[in-house]
Design a protein that fits this description.
mainly alpha; 3 domains; about 350 residues; globular; Serine Threonine Protein Phosphatase 5, Tetratricopeptide repeat
Length: about 350
């Protein structure tokens, strides 16, 4: 995307975003991100469990096969199933649990839209996830969603907005557990580095590392944070500071620790690593990373992955006569044909 266009898009998207950080508990279920349909007469705990289970499975599909497959499933389930359940009769505890489960799935759907660069749609889902979490009294999903909005602002180059949203997310979670604290501090570090606050960025990184050391080994389907994610944030902070070598080393460590099932994450990580290696002047290393990218990308449906593939071809074109690029060229053609 043209940088000037990106700035206009970001300004439009985030013009109203900062009006929603406070945890007010004023939303209404009628504002859910679904369309009207036939209502279920009454729901219970089993329907809530179904939404939680479906959300976890969609998250697994996202990790393994990409948002291109997972997001349509999530959107359809929200419209066809979750919407009627939100309007159904239920006891107060079940209503609150359903609102919380719906907010989790809505947040995940918004994250996928953001990841696939459908930024307007992503923000729509995010704001509705905030409202559902607010009514449910679900502080975790509320601050997690604000953190997602901060990441979106980061992706659009809006450093100060990203920092404001990341700080709002942290302030909304006064009793957060250690893994959530690490999740929030990592994004605060990234955003702080974007506005040139090196001291605060490294302070937040230390806080994230300390919190992560206190967390259990549970793998969260939604909004999880682990050593891989922490090192990814370290890499982002270092590249913002101009430490390209340190950023590359941190990204390599992050990839080494990445769980096997997180294929979509590796597609992005290898592409970022390859671009930074090429900037550093390491063409052979960049080609090796692009090769690993191709190994993962051919199995994943992702607009962001498609963009990375286009970047691969553009960035390596000036080096077409080099041995490393020639060796990679055949593989690039094969993947391009398979994706056509």
């Amino acid at each position: 995307m043209d940088p000037s266009r990106r700035g206009v898009l970001a300004a439009t998207l985030f013009s109203a975003a900062l009006s929603v950080p406070a945890f007010q508990q004023t939303a209404r279920a009628a504002e859910s991100p679904v369309t009207p349909g036939k209502a279920t007469i009454r729901i219970g705990a089993s329907q809530v469990a179904s939404v939680r289970s479906m959300t976890a499975r969609i998250a697994d599909i996202l990790d393994e096969f990409g948002a291109g497959h997972a997001r349509p499933m999530a959107a359809a389930f929200l419209v066809n199933t979750v919407g009627p359940w939100l309007r159904a009769q239920a006891s107060e505890p079940v209503k609150r649990d359903m609102l919380a489960a719906a907010s989790d799935l809505t947040y995940l759907t918004g994250w996928m839209a953001m990841y696939e660069k459908a930024h307007g749609l992503g923000q729509t889902y995010y704001v509705k996830a905030l409202k559902l979490a607010d009514e449910a009294g679900d502080h975790v999903t509320y601050c997690r969603t604000l953190r997602g909005m901060s990441l979106q602002a980061s992706n659009l180059g809006r450093g100060q907005t990203a920092l404001d949203l990341a700080n709002s997310a942290a302030e909304a979670a006064p009793t957060a557990g250690p893994r959530l604290v690490a999740f929030l501090r990592g994004q605060q570090a990234h955003a702080a580095s974007m506005v040139g606050d090196r001291h605060r960025a490294h302070t937040r990184l230390r806080e994230a590392e300390t919190a992560l050391s206190k967390a259990d080994n549970r793998r969260d389907a939604i909004g999880g944070y682990d050593r891989t994610a922490y090192l990814f944030h370290v890499s982002h902070v270092l590249v913002e500071e101009g430490d390209l070598s340190g950023s590359i080393n941190a990204m390599k460590q992050s990839i080494r620790l990445q769980p096997a099932q997180e294929r979509q994450g590796r597609v992005h990580a290898y592409a970022v690593l390859a671009q930074r290696q090429l900037r550093y002047g390491h063409l052979d290393a960049a080609c090796q990373s692009w090769s690993r990218f191709l190994d993962e990308y051919e199995h994943v449906s992702s607009i962001r992955g498609d963009d990375h593939f286009a970047t691969l071809r553009t960035d390596l074109a000036p080096y077409a006569k080099s041995r490393a690029v020639k060796e990679l060229a055949g593989r690039v053609r094969e993947v391009a044909a398979a994706k056509a």
